Description:
Layout: E1 5-11, H1 15-26, E2 31-36, H2 43-49, E3 53-56, H3 63-73, E4 78-81, E5 105-108
Parallel strand pairs: 1-2, 1-4, 2-3, 4-5
Amino acid sequence: xxxxxxxxxxxxxxxxxxxxxxxxxxxxxxxxxxxxxxxxxxxxxxxxxxxxxxxxxxxxxxxxxxxxxxxxxxxxxxxxxxxxxxxxxxxxxxxxxxxxxxxxxxxxxxxx
Length: 112
C-alpha cells in the first residue's frame, strides 16, 4: 500500500510562477498545499486556480512559521517541500518508501 504524499509550498508574492509549480507538483503527489505568507499579489488566487489547497497567513510570518503551518495542515503521511520560486519540481523519489507502519516521514527535495 502506498502512503499519501503532500507537497507543501511556502509562497510569498509568487503570482507569476506559482501556477506552473502547482500543476507540475500535482503530477507526483496526492495533495498540493500552498501556504501564502501574506502575499501582496495574486499568489493565493493563482495557486487555487491551478488546483492547490491554499492557506493564507494574514501577515508575513516567515519561512519557518509557514512550514510549521503547512506540516500541521498536510493531509499526507509523507510531506515534501517545494520552492515556489523555482521553475518546476522533480518527481518524488521512492514514492511511499519512506513510511513504515504509518509513521510520519519528512523529505525535502531540490527543484531545479
